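Hi! If you just cloned this repository, the fastest way to understand the data is to look at a raw example. We've pasted two of them here, unedited. The first protein comes first, obviously.
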Amino acid sequence: MAPSADQRIVIENCAIATVDAGETEYASGHLVLAGNRIESVGAGDAPEGLENVVRRIDGRGHLATPGLVNTHHHFYQWITRGLATDHNLFNWLVALYPTWARIDEGMTYAAAQGSLAMMARGGVTTAMDHHYVFPQGSGDLSGSIIRAAAETGVRFTLARGSMDRSEKDGGLPPDFAVETLEGALAATEETVKKHHDASFDAMTQVAVAPCSPFSVSTELLRQGAELARRLGVRLHTHGSETVEEEKFCHELFGMGPTDYFESTGWLGEDVWMAHCVHMKDSDIAAFARTKTGVAHCPSSNARLAAGIARVPDMLRAGVPVGLGVDGTASNESGELHTELRNALLINRLGAHREAALSARQALRLGTYGGAQVLGRAEQIGSLEPGKLADVVLWKMDTLAHASIADPVTALVFGAAAPVTASFVNGRQIVENGRLLTVDEDAVAATTREEAQRLARIAAQG
């Protein structure tokens, strides 16, 4: 529950990176949270005479930033980490789909708990999950994921995925792991109507999210786009992740992924796509023209040897770009701070070298950029009066960071910084690196048990 609107929390004496349009920063400043909104942010001490101050936090030695926003993930993969570690994307999918196709509601709930807990304790205040595996008779998977997010206390977007192109149709998933076209569309619409909240301070939203060009039919893409726009929600899928996908699209559709997506209604300011590694100039221009967003997942792209996305070129062209963890079967750490650092470092291996990204650009990708991609830049992603109180206080005076003068540089270039406090909707969910909302040790034990149960079932065929 969000705190009462007349209750104030004051954070003082901390460095602040607002990530607003002017990149405003304060070497020592204050934040006032009133209920679930940011009431004021500025240099020096908080205004005098504030009423109903229920808590004051001395932020000396800390950096306050907007909460991190994760724009692409697959929570269910938490219980299949560490497998197929030397595979490219297509071989990795072929190796793991037979296991994933045996998940059930209990496994999905436990995996969502683990994924969410790891992100939240590391500074994520808004998460998303692209869930697209719905084995027959597996239970209420969407409901279990949403329940785990509510219990953890993070703001959440469920991208209700789907697949209808199985092995018999030339796709990668096993035949028993996909839905019918009609079934997928009906279940997606039901999920949106049951769970999507369009309000300013919504904690749960739903997007329409067929999985990828090589696991869904053209008709599912086309009708999925029509469904999303009729219901007024966003669209999400995978795009241009590997050279194999590029080849697949040319062979099957006679065009590259971007042209194929445009032909099915899948470019627009209400769309964001994961990865977008193999983009030509014309593809980037199309995304910029239509304001189609990108979820950049540097660790997963490296893990699966997919390549280096042209993030600097996308940003210069005006493409909205956020960061994503991606599923933890291709990013075993499962937390977003790693993506701040890896986005900066990996992109410096590309054509732009040291000019590719700066520390502040990386932080913007992980905060305001993510809010843009999820369609929530008016509510979250920067520390500004009137925005929702999603704030992280990073401890920067420990051995890991204390000798780095600039706290933003320390946060992005340095080791993962401890989270002293994380607030979502004005409610504190992390204190001194530990979750306040769920028992981390119990979640760890449950995820281990569910991973072992899934492994036994998969081994039995």
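Ok, and the second one:
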Amino acid sequence: MPDVRLASPQGKWILLTTVLGSSMALLDSTVVNVALPRIGRDLDADLAALQWTVNAYMLTLAGLILLGGSLGDRYGRRKVFVVGVVWFAAASLLCGLAPNAGVLVAARALQGVGGALLTPGSLALIQASFHPDDRGRAVGLWSGFGGVGAAVGPFVGGWLVDGPGWRWVFLLNVPLALVCAPIAVRHVPESAGGTSRSSGAESGGGRSDHGRFDVLGAVLGALALALVTYALIEARSGSLLVAVTAIAGVAAGVAFVAVEKRRPDPMMPLGIFASRQFTAVNLVTLCVYGAFGGFFFLGAVQLQVVVGYSALQAGTALLPTTVLMLLFSARSGALADRIGPRIPLTVGPLLCAAGMLLMLRVGPDASYLADILPALLVLGTGMVTLVAPLTATVLGSVDVSRAGLASGINNAAARAAGLIAVAALPLVTGMGEEAYRSPTAFDNAFGRAMTVCAGVLVVGSVVAFATVRSLPAGCRRPECRTYGAVLSPPLEGERTRGRLS
């Protein structure tokens, strides 16, 4: 049985290294958006290159995060976590040194691979190391400190972009890794599937008792996302290649479903979708996090290109949403425990939709206090209202033994939704390749994008109202009660008591 106590020196080291590791990935998910206009100018990149700068990372992370955790369960969670940290830092160094947009995009894809290894691994290490009596508090501290990292990310990113330059947004990960990896090697105990099961096994799936991994499923899933993303981003050209790519992406998606249905050890067991509520809440997730992904991608650019903010001002301006999440997500979860998830999951998306419609007032002469802040406060209130109940509903919709797996699927779905939104919104709104260089053109397209995002959120609200029901008594409840990330729901593992095989 895990026996490290939180108050012990070793417990504090474990908490520090897991917070540092997860913060690296959380920072990159939010900071890069603030740096996009400057990256575009310095590398002479068009809008498609900026979309790929965001999506290359999201693509490999979303496609491999289900598999990444199970690698730790098989080969050792500390080992895979350290590999992920080092991999992430090396890819970050390559991003910071990238001479052109092509190299930057390739390095971002490599970053996502590292993120898929370290993101589930950080929580898995906590659950595999701490004594059961301290595990809940350790998870709470981990998620809280990680949320603080996510909150300061846009501020730090803006300061770096305006100061030493956008490359330091990526280079900052190198010293963090130089601190994180040695601490993990020295102070974190190794664990694998035979001694403890946590988010590595449960969120990952894809490994049978005989040690076979669903590599084919992971490849097909990532390939489907990549091909569809390429087709959406390059659709403006209207070429035959785009049409062929779109068809191939759909075919890869169909093949993924067929493989997962037939394999004895699938990465994503399709039987879990037999729960109608689990399926419904994932549809809500796609709507909600698709809209969030589109908003935070375009919002940071809107504030700089149209309103005229510096990168630091834009990053600071977006802080209220994350601060509200940190302050009130736990209380929102407690309220949902009392009244059930249906009302929060119906009202939350509507509030977010209202916040995005209020962003239509954010133009060249926008006032922060009169125009921008009210929109962000309404949006943040909606996010607070829905995120904790969404996670609780995901966990409560399946058998307790599959709660970690359900959380992993939901987390991957949210990231995939953001990926598709970043690829599709510029196309849907008629945003040209050079739109981010023109305040007028970008402002017009941004207004259409916010309307589309609001509509998607309304759809999510309707789905929640029509399908979400009260959770059964005794179902699994979230351990991550405080959360600050805005682009994905919290990743939950299996809550353990004692030794599990």
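That's it. A detail worth noticing about the second one: The longest helix spans residues 9-43.
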